[in-house]
UniProtKB/TrEMBL annotation:
Class of enzymatic activity (EC top level): isomerase
Name this protein carries in UniProt: DNA helicase RecQ
The family this protein is said to belong to: Belongs to the helicase family. RecQ subfamily.
EC number: 5.6.2.4
GO molecular function: DNA helicase activity; hydrolase activity
Domain HRDC: 533-605
Cofactor(s) it depends on: Zn(2+); Mg(2+)
SUPFAM superfamilies named in the record: HRDC-like, P-loop containing nucleoside triphosphate hydrolases
Keyword Protein biosynthesis: no
């Protein structure tokens, strides 16, 4: 039997949001919080966390107070809720006193369903008193991993959130995050005093995202190929490590006819927010960015996330790639990775501030990331395992679609390592990968001749592999810790593991890149799941044009009007009455009343 609240939450889901059913995990969370329980929710990006506090806030008495660090996005979040007929407002530092007073008055008069607050507001006694004078339905703590001091997004203001419980012991709290290894999970629970809360851990799988990691040759050109062949006209995010490469890559894309905007901390605040706003509002823009971009960007139709440099951790990588495909439609997570990335990241760690423990931790993060890059198994299985979850081979990642072979690289590894050892023992020298490979290939370059390296006994012993293959060997040995880099010039040095390979017969299995790239199969997959029936395509375009005009007129992002998935369903089913239109997923009561007639007209025109 369902309790009255349960059916009420489902009604709100249908009526306000226009969705038929809860997604996996949502119902339990919504019911728990609606009936006054505390919750800690771990769910991947795009999993549907917002409804988990929005619906309880609508059903419970009083105002749902949402604490979020994403000040720049509050306006959009509030606009999106208002478009659904939800009474939402926010308080943050971007407002002038008049605006603030108005929102405060609405709150006190019980005229709000949801109030978004920046965390620093809660440090101000007057805000606390304001909350005392009104009725709070619940506290939702979004991006809860910001309370984790070792995490990558730490915000000191989040530490104060542990006091909420003392001041308002009867108000339920729900903390939500998409970043969740065991360690982060435990830290959030203890810092927010949520040990006794119900912990909901959803599956972290994002089946609609296709994970691909490719060897890096000419990264910009590889990126361009990807965009042209699979994502033309799509919105996407390209991540680069440095500001400089952000600028260069954005320029390169623009010169090649792709609308791309840079985003990094070196740009002034106005340019940054302008670029972010354009990305959210316009269709099909590409943002090239450092990791400063993206947290809380809930644009549902980001079709690809590309990394041109190796991310520093699997956690960060998963969060960044998770920004693709929130609408559930097929999307691509693509990473180009090469030897230079390993050299560079090791250098960054060696030169980083902080104590030895901190460096060890960064090193462990990097190792996990490298293991993901070099795996011959399903990428998704490995990703989920990182978050402590099981899964079967997915059929939608590059290693599943075009399985790489592994080969016995023991002899190759021995040749390479003994070159490093000989240079050190016989010449007291250290060199980077380029010179070592030249020696193995027997190339009489000027640098080889200058150092008399052609007289080494290992000179020319490695001609069975091509240069690119040798680079692959170096990269994989580095990833496995069987070789190490040192200093500013990326010189190669041996490790205890190298000795096992050289003297104790340790076998080295290496990955051979598949000849056939994974992308051919991608297109068929996309075609099956996402391409519209032929006759629906022009209708979809017509609806998109209507949406663009409407969004512009109202000054909101296009997806606030309707998501792509909703327009697709309308274009395919072509409803002819308001009742039929109301049955489409994503068309709730308010939007039906507001846009129903216009849409039916656009369809019949
Ligand atoms: P998260 O905050 O976990 O990243 P969101 O709350 O932004 O995810 O939800 C992701 C997308 O899924 C949104 O576009 C949202 O409208 C949609 N969504 C959430 N729950 C449902 C549902 N039960 N049915 C259909 N769509 C849903
Ligand atoms: Zn797979």
């Amino acid at each position: 039997m369902t309790s009255p609240e349960v059916s009420e939450t489902l009604q709100v889901l249908n009526r306000v949001f226009g969705y038929d059913s809860f997604r996996q995990g949502q119902q339990e969370i919504v019911d728990h919080v609606t009936s006054g329980g505390d919750a800690l929710v771990l769910m991947p990006t795009g999993g549907g966390k917002s409804l988990c506090y929005q619906i309880p806030a609508l059903v419970r008495q009083g105002v749902g107070v949402v604490i979020s660090p994403l000040i720049a996005l509050m306006q959009d979040q509030v606009d999106a809720l208002r478009a659904l007929g939800v009474r939402a407002g926010f308080l943050n530092s971007t407002q002038d006193p008049d605006e603030r007073r108005m929102v405060e008055a609405e709150f006190l008069a019980g005229e709000l369903d949801l109030l978004y607050l920046a965390p620093e507001r809660l440090r101000v006694e007057s805000t606390l008193q304001l909350l005392d004078r009104g009725k709070v339905a619940l506290f939702a703590i979004d991006e809860a991993h910001c309370v984790s001091q070792w995490g990558h997004d730490f915000r000191p203001d989040y530490l104060a959130l542990s006091d909420l419980h003392e001041r308002w012991p009867d108000v339920p709290r729900i903390a939500l995050t998409a970043t969740a290894t065991k360690a982060t999970h435990a830290e959030i629970a203890s810092r927010l005093k949520l040990e006794d809360a119900h912990h909901f851990v959803a599956s972290f799988d994002r089946p609609n995202i296709q994970y691909r990691i490719v060897p890096k040759n000419e990264p910009k050109k590889q990126l361009l190929d990807l965009l042209r062949s699979e994502h033309s006209g799509d919105a996407g995010i390209v991540y680069c490590l440095s500001r400089k490469s952000v600028e260069e890559t954005a320029d390169f894309l623009v010169r090649n006819g792709i609308e791309a905007l840079p985003y990094h901390a070196g740009l002034d605040a106005r340019t940054r927010s302008e670029h972010q706003a354009r990305f959210l509002r316009e269709d099909g823009l590409v943002v090239v960015a450092t990791i400063a971009f993206g947290m809380g960007i809930d644009k549902p139709d980001v079709r690809f996330v590309a990394h041109l440099d190796l991310p520093k951790s699997v956690e960060g990588y998963y969060q960044e790639t998770g920004r693709a495909g929130r609408d559930g439609l097929p999307s691509t997570a693509w990473l180009a990775y090469g030897l230079q990335d390993v050299v560079q990241q090791r250098k960054l760690i060696d030169g980083s501030e902080g104590d030895a423990a901190h460096r060890r931790k960064q090193s462990a993060h990097l190792d996990a990331m490298l293991a993901l890059c070099e795996t011959v198994e399903c990428r998704r299985v490995q990703l989920l395992a990182y978050f402590g979850q099981d899964g079967a081979a997915c059929g939608n990642c590059d290693t599943c679609l075009a399985p790489p072979e592994s080969w016995d690289g023991t002899v190759a590894a021995q040749k390479l390592l003994s070159t490093v050892v000989r240079l050190r023992r016989e010449r007291r020298q250290k060199f980077g990968a380029g010179q070592i490979i030249d020696i193995l290939l027997g190339r009489k370059t000027s640098k080889v001749v200058q150092h008399d390296h052609d007289s080494l006994s290992v000179f020319g012993v490695g001609t069975e592999l091509a240069e690119s293959e040798w680079r692959g060997v170096v990269r994989q040995l580095l990833a496995k810790g069987l070789l190490a880099v040192e200093g500013d010039y990326g010189t190669l040095v041996t490790t205890p593991g190298s000795d096992e390979v050289l003297y104790q017969g340790r076998q080295v299995l290496l990955r051979r890149e598949p000849k056939r790239a994974a992308k051919a199969s991608t297109r068929t997959r996309r075609a099956e799941t996402a391409e519209l029936p032929e006759e629906a395509a022009p209708v979809f375009e017509k609806l998109r044009a209507w949406r663009a005009a409407t969004a512009k007129e109202q000054g909101v992002p296009a997806y606030v009007i309707f998501h792509d998935a909703t327009l697709r369903q309308i274009a395919t089913e072509r409803p002819s009455t308001l009742a039929e239109l109301g049955g489409v997923s994503g068309v709730g009561e308010n939007k039906l009343a507001k846009y129903g007639e216009q849409l039916l007209e656009a369809l019949s025109a």
